[in-house]
Hints:
It comes from Desulfosoma caldarium. Keywords: ATP-binding, Nucleotide-binding, Transport. With about 280 residues, the protein is α/β, with parallel strands linked by helices. Helices cover about 40% and strands about 20% of the residues. A hairpin with a 2-residue loop joins strand 4 and strand 5. The longest helix has 18 residues. Bound molecules: adenosine-5'-triphosphate.
Amino acid sequence: MGIGNNGLGSPIIQVRNLSSHYGGRTILHEISFDIPSGKVTVIMGVSGCGKSTLLRHLIGLKPTAPGCLFVEGEDAGLFRTAQWNAYRKRLGVLFQGGALFSSLSVRDNLAVPLRVHTRLAESTIRIITDIKLHQVGLTEFGDFMPSQLSGGMRKRAGLARAMVMDPEILFVDEPSSGLDPITAAGLDELLVELKHAMGMTLVVVTHELESAFRIADQIVVMDAGRILAAGTPEAVRSCEDIRVRQFLERRADERAVDQGRYEKRLAAIGSKKRVPPF
Ligand SMILES: Nc1ncnc2c1ncn2[C@@H]1O[C@H](COP(=O)(O)OP(=O)(O)OP(=O)(O)O)[C@@H](O)[C@H]1O
């Protein structure tokens, strides 16, 4: 499958022949793809295929060899500390758990990056946090503690905090994890709205096929540390590579199983009655 520009516009990040190791074990095998500017790139693949490891390279948490990662054409493998710091200031990251500070109100959670990285007056911080809370639909919840929020609201609050410094590139790890399908779909919509409203580049790591096709401009399918396919959702959907087909269809099969039928089957297997088909 075509790797490179894919007609999605100019890349803000380019990954070239990136390999990654933990001890003697190779986790990523010479992977290459582009992250187009102002678009949503979704990185997907089964558990353990190396998505989080790739994310760690992209955000500079794991060192990258020269010639393997380029930010606007600059070789990140040659970045000095000051350049990494400058790059990280352009990023927002929403980790899987949302990672809100439980002892701080939602508003104070949002204020943390502003208090740490800027010298803004408290009155300005208040205005910025109010805008971000509004953007994620939590206007009324600034004074709540994280424990008083639902899972979906906590994700939204985490998202607001990840965006509070107006990042150019937002990395989101498993946005749907732990959410019911309706809440997950709402969060997907919010991500797409934010991309349009703020012109951000989004990189989303997910297992969720449905979510990936809902939000992606580009999908990168990984398997065992390699890229099986990278392209528009349409290109990935029509990809004939057998492993891509297996990945897409196995997930589709899982979704197609009706819960009631599944439970009846389980009961029948247990009672030795005739087992109904799915
Ligand atoms: N710190 C580490 N030390 C050693 N091995 C690691 C470490 N982190 C991850 N691995 C291994 O690297 C491989 C890829 O892990 P990674 O977390 O990148 O996969 P993933 O696709 O993000 O999985 P998941 O979807 O379950 O989060 C796995 O076999 C994992 O056991």
